[in-house]
Amino acid sequence: MLNLGGILAISDLYEEDGSFHDFNMDIHRGFDPEKLRHQIIGLGFEKTTVSPCFVIRKELTPDLIKEYPVFLLSAIR
Predict the structure, then answer these.
(1) What is the pLDDT of residues 8-67, one digit of tens each?
(2) d(CA 24, CA 9)
(3) Rounded CA gap, 22 and 40, in Å?
């Protein structure tokens, strides 16, 4: 539980095509931060912000480096 006035911070990948882990793995593929923000607002959080905060550069093959942006969502309870 987060006390009133507490700050929630979530950082994760933006939605991606599955190549971050492996196309053959059926696992988490990031979030749509705007959908997540609306869910958090529905839970009573206020002053939400979403912004890009980092980019992970991953070598998929020796000649292909792909960038995966990461967002930071913050909100006050």
Answers:
(1) 999 999 999 888 887 676 778 899 999 999 999 999 999 999 999 999 999 988 999 999
(2) 30
(3) 29
What's the distance, CA 3 to chain centroid? Answer: 23
* Phi, psi for 42 (deg, rounded to 5): -65, -20
What are 34's two structure tokens?
A: 């705007």
Q: Which residue has the tokens 């006050």?
A: 76
Amino acid at 51: S
Q: In 12-68, where does DSSP find H-type helix?
A: 33-42
- The reported pTM is 0.86
